[in-house]
Amino acid sequence: MKNVTDSFVSLDYWPFAGSFGFNTDILATNPINLTVVLGVLIFFGKGVLSDLLDNRKQRILNTIRNSEELRGGAIEQLEKARARLRKVEMEANEFRVNGYSEIEREKWNLINSTYKTLEQLENYKNETIHFEQQSAINEVRQQVFQQALEGALGTLNSCLNNELHLRTISANIGMFGTMKEIID
After folding, report:
1. Structure pTM?
2. What do you get for the CA distance between the two ends of the chain, in Å?
3. Which of 151 and 87 is assigned the larger pLDDT?
4. 3-class DSSP state for residue 157?
5. Which of 3, 41, 104, 138 might form a disulfide with 45, Cβ 3.0–4.6 angstroms?
């Protein structure tokens, strides 16, 4: 410590004004240099530092202001999107309800159409059965008539002799001739 106080008190250590040199005593020169440098920095740097801080403050405020504006715009867009979503959901529900009712309507139309088709098929079936019955009845009639005719011819042929047969033919020819005269 004695050296530190001696360097401030002792004048013989200080160089003369005409000479210029470096003081290599760190303990003697650093506090003075630091004080001078800090004084110059505070005196001249105060305005620069103040301007830098003001600029930084303005940028931060502008950023906050822009962020608030963007936030407000984002909230507005979010509300619009929510409104569109509600509208789309309502339309989707309408389509769903209409789709279900349309499906029900189509289902009933298909059921009714199928029922009508089944009724037509039933009618065709009944008509076909009736036709087949009539056809079978007519076939049976023809067979009965054929058998009756064969039976009658067989009876006539066994009962008639040639003379009776010729007289029957002559009587029939006479009847045809009379009918022909009446018609003419």
Report:
1. 0.36
2. 180
3. 87
4. helix
5. 41
Distances 120 to 71, 109, 125, 126, 133 between C-alpha atoms, Å: 71, 16, 8, 10, 20
Distance CA 104, CA 97 (A): 11
* Residue 179 parent element (H or E): helix 162-183
Q: Three-state SS for 24?
A: coil
Higher pLDDT, 181 or 173: 173
**Sequence-distant (≥ 6) Cβ neighbours of residue 21 within 8 angstroms:** 15
pLDDT for the residue numbered 133: 92
User: Quick check: 6 pLDDT over 90?
Assistant: no
Q: Which amino acid is residue 17, in one-letter code?
A: A
Phi/psi at 121 (5° precision): -65, -40
CB 23 within 8 A of CB 29: yes
Do the beta carbons of residue 26 and residue 20 sit within 8 Å? Answer: no
Closest of 95, 116, 94, 114 to residue 106, by C-alpha: 114
Higher pLDDT, 25 or 89: 89
Distance, CA of 115 to chain centre: 33
